[in-house]
Amino acid sequence: FADVAENALDDLPIIWASTPAREIGYTLAERILQRIAHDEHHVRSQTIAARLVTQK
Question: What range(s) does the Periplasmic binding protein/LacI sugar binding domain occupy (predicted)?
C-alpha cells in the first residue's frame, strides 16, 4: 500500500544473550581436574554471566 521499505516499518531491536563458550570450557576443564584430584573444597555450582547483544 505504501512505498516504504519493509525494514523501515518496524523499529524493534533484536536482543539475545551470548554465553562465553571459551570461559565455560575453561571452567569445566578446571572442575574436572579438581574432581580427578579429589579436591572437593570448591563450589559445586558456578554462575557465568551472559553478555547481552543488541542488533538493530
Answer: 3-54
